[in-house]
Amino acid sequence: MELKNDLILRAAAGEPTERTPVWLMRQAGRILPEYRAVRSSVSGFKELVETPELASEVTIQPVDILGVDAAIIFSDILVVPEAMGCTYEMIEQRGPIFPQTIQTPDDVKNLRVEEAHFQLHYVYEAIRITKRALNGRVPLIGFAGAPWTILAYMVEGSGSKTFSKARKLLYTSPELAHTLLDKITTVTINYLQAQVDAGAAMLQIFDSWAGILPPAHYHEFSTRYIARICDAITTVPVTVFAKGAFFALSEFAQLDCQTIGLDWNMNIADSRAAIGFNKTLQGNLDPCALYGSFDNIRQETIAMLQAFGPTRHIANLGHGVYPDTDPDKVKCFVDTIKEYSSKINEPQSVT
């Protein structure tokens, strides 16, 4: 099926684009009343994730409503530990909770690995349905959590400001941590490849808790496993988004991926200097900028575009869009990128 809009894929490859492509992390979510209507028709978040037809419907909504240049499949990074046998509950206003955490070598030994990704058939079916429904309008992005972030939830048992239980494991039982990370990585590679087989045209690895590790631990317990995933996925572009990992940008330059996502605290010029021009950068407007006036949003967005320049850039926020953001403000961000970048983009590529 021929893509009518392949801007994001060309930008990831460093090819010329008529304008800067744009999408948003968490674009399929609570900012849209249309999403809330679908969500209210089911028992909760997990049922929505596990119902392919509904997951597809909310995946496509931001393409129709916001005019973004890519869809990202509606799912959650925590489907991977669940497929491995470490189940979670999504508690309203509180987030994910794991009734049973990973604490001992036996806990790790008992996890599913080789067959685990088959448990996630509902994600692949949602991708297939969405790919057909999009009919080539925009590419579909698949995703997974980075192994360190998945370990953090499996050991901690919930979200945390410090993830002290997970970080403690790295000091007290590093070999056990590596065994767990190895298993998560194997499952994640199989899962992402199955997403590609189902129709995902691009993948993103989310390392949401990268920034809580010291640099030496991040190198040992995260980057090496992200590198394994990047090495294994060879048929579609891969983006690595590691929130807070400003200290690892020069390491990311060595990854076999096409795009590096920046959070809103990462300086654009410094990041480009660390990563070089062989990779595309994604980001990185502060999500809170979308609480400002329409004029302020336009000014901040244009400043971001000027800082990145017209090549090797995929516009996005520096994290997921916050759930109480006005959809009209999000639309202003998207429209400003389209209008401004179409005037300044030059038909050349920096490689």
UniProtKB/TrEMBL annotation:
Pfam family membership, one: URO-D
GO cellular component, one term: cytosol
Reaction catalyzed: uroporphyrinogen III + 4 H(+) = coproporphyrinogen III + 4 CO2
Binding site for substrate: 26-30, 76, 153, 208, 319
Name of the top EC class for this enzyme: lyase
Catalytic activity, EC: 4.1.1.37
Marked site: Transition state stabilizer: 76
Residue ranges occupied by any Uroporphyrinogen decarboxylase (URO-D) domain in the UniProt entry: 21-30, 141-157
One annotated GO biological process: protoporphyrinogen IX biosynthetic process
Pathway stated in the Swiss-Prot or TrEMBL entry: Porphyrin-containing compound metabolism; protoporphyrin-IX biosynthesis; coproporphyrinogen-III from 5-aminolevulinate: step 4/4
Record GO terms (molecular function): uroporphyrinogen decarboxylase activity
SUPFAM superfamilies: UROD/MetE-like
Location in the cell: Cytoplasm, Cytosol
Alphabetical UniProt keywords: Cytoplasm, Decarboxylase, Lyase, Porphyrin biosynthesis
Keyword Lyase attributed: yes
UniProt similarity note: Belongs to the uroporphyrinogen decarboxylase family.
Assembly and oligomerization: Homodimer.
NCBIfam families the record matches: hemE (TIGR01464)
Function: Catalyzes the decarboxylation of four acetate groups of uroporphyrinogen-III to yield coproporphyrinogen-III.
Protein name: Uroporphyrinogen decarboxylase
Gene name in the database record: hemE
